[in-house]
Amino acid sequence: MITKAKDQDFVAIAKEDGMMWPEKVRRVSIHKAMPSIPRRHAASRLRSVLIFWGAHSDSPTPNLSFGHLRFLNVLDLEGAPLKEFPSKVFSLFLLKYLSLRNTSVNSIPSSISKLLNLETLDLKHTQISELPVGILKLRKLRHLLVYRYEIDSDDRIHTKYGFEPPTQIGNLQSMQKLCFVEANQGDDLLLELGRMNQLRRLGIVKFRKEHGKALCSSVTKLTELRALSITAITDSEFIDLGCLSSPPRFLQRLYLTGRLQSLPEWLHSSDSLVKLVLKWSQLSEDPLLSLQHLPNLVHLELVQVYNGEMICFQANGFQRLKFLGINKLESLRVITVEQGALPCLEKLIVQSCKELKRLPSGIEYLATLKVLEFFNMPKELIMTLQPNEEHGDYLKVAHVPDVYSTYWNNGILDNFALFTKEDKSSSLPSPDGSRHKHIWK
């Protein structure tokens, strides 16, 4: 079946044999099929081809005959059943966008250097772990995404794997998004990053403490940086960013995954920061004291960040925060919310805090809270939320539209709606099989 616009500029194709293509078509979207792409005049105007196989396609390896589409600018093969890089792509000299996301491709040939007009190369969730030197010839390249996530624990915490770049990657000075570079090459690589003065998003994995000075030197030069992600090589490795005197002026998102001696001093003055994710920090002091006055912070996730037994959200703190996640604070026994704190909070997730057996004190002050989720939490805490529980805490969260408890049951993620907007009178938890919450993204 073919669906087309009146001007024949766009065509969407579903699985069907013997189809005819409009002569002037410029953009094609193909769903769950790999029809024969027409030659000669019928495809002479084609600029964009997007093919969707689906996440779990069992289709055979397709015959990708794109070599004659010499004016093609966009080629999206996300999810294709590919194990090798399609060599026919190298004749598409005008190609600007190429995606092999979610394929099984595990290497990139040196012939990639022929695609001199390429601006975006999306290799997310492939098996690629290094790139050839020929990539350095692509001086127009702006977006280079080479990484994958793996979930290796019941807490749904992602492990990131990146790629080993060629030396002198700083030659790619048009680069705006670069994720995720492995820091194994040490200071030489990290200093190269400082040459990419157009970078807006930078991700680094396998970071070591001794890399801190070189990275800070480069970050100082990245005046356009909006997002920075740093992941240590192990959960016991320190991230040292103390040499950075001030944050990038426009930094909006910061992800630090590794041990911290203390929060960087410059973090306190990160006025543009909207999202902050801290993992494995293992701080000895309550980090909330340093973060509570960030003026634009909307999203905060804390995973294994603090070793203390109590945290306190002070009055007038976190004035714009809408999302808060607290995960694996294993010694935490008490959460206190003072009146006037968190006035805009809409979603709160508390996860794997094994010693926390009562609701946060003062949670009733969170008038804007819409969703409260408990993931893998002690039974004692969940039982206090039952309406018929004597001395329980049900009334403290009666104003919250949706309250959930999620936990692992023999390897299966079970989600229970303790009470929802639709049914606030439920006296016992009831399974909601249609709503499996994939929380903690």
UniProtKB/TrEMBL annotation:
<dbReference type="Pfam" id="PF23598">
    <property type="entry name" value="LRR_14"/>
</dbReference>
<feature type="domain" description="Disease resistance R13L4/SHOC-2-like LRR">
    <location>
        <begin position="46"/>
        <end position="372"/>
    </location>
</feature>
<dbReference type="InterPro" id="IPR032675">
    <property type="entry name" value="LRR_dom_sf"/>
</dbReference>
<keyword id="KW-0677">Repeat</keyword>
<keyword id="KW-0433">Leucine-rich repeat</keyword>
<protein>
    <submittedName>
        <fullName>DISEASE RESISTANCE PROTEIN RP</fullName>
    </submittedName>
</protein>
<dbReference type="InterPro" id="IPR055414">
    <property type="entry name" value="LRR_R13L4/SHOC2-like"/>
</dbReference>
<dbReference type="InterPro" id="IPR003591">
    <property type="entry name" value="Leu-rich_rpt_typical-subtyp"/>
</dbReference>
